[in-house]
Design goal:
3 helices, about 30% strand, alpha+beta, PH-domain like, Immunoglobulin-like, 14 strands
Length: about 260
Amino acid sequence: MHETESHELPPPRRPPVGLMVLAGSILASFVWWWSMRPPTPAEPGVAAPVATEPAPVPEATVAAEPAPAKSVPPKLRERAEAPAPVAPPPPTPTGPLLRVTGDVVGADVFIDRTFVGKTPFESRDVATGSHQINISKEGFDGVSRKVEVLADGPTDVTFALKEVTLDAAVDVVHRHRLGSCEGRLTATVNGLRYTPTGGDDGFETPLTTFETFAVEYREKQLKLKIKGGRSYNFTTKAANADSLVVFHRDVEKARARLAGVT
């Protein structure tokens, strides 16, 4: 009998332990490096996806049914549609009211010689009846007037301080070359006039025609010379020349204001 030769296979060769440890270390190092590398930047122009939460789904809206209209009684409807009542205007004050105005603002107002204010002035405290009202301001001639304040309603009084006024008069004796005559000198803004008690020696001349107009107090004389005309010499029967001085002062003040000199 032939014995059959058996060929047993040699046991598999195992890799050395050191090689396996080295391979494991390399693999672990690669995994650690891969996990720690920075993320790859996104391509320009391409937005990175942003994780968003899903929008909440709105609940189904249920349309409310309109409430049934309530019927309004006709009387209530008329009251609601009627306009609101308008309040009546306040009652108009009654009693005296004095109003004082003028062409100069801030002029002093005196009632019965008592200072009460400045123009324009208004008061309900002035008693009904007759009152003396004076208006004055520096640089202007004062104005005085008697006023009757009404018992009910306004009493309006207007003064014109800028207006030139003149109302002067004096009794004089006109001396002639031979003799004299008595008469009265009067002056307004329209001119000066001499009116004799008798005879035809009177005259009238505008205030702008004076060449000489002067007072000599000691001699009690008022001298007047008209441009291109006659000369006049007046005196007075009074004990002094005070009346001539006052007349001369008033006329000269009006002449200055008419000429634009204050």
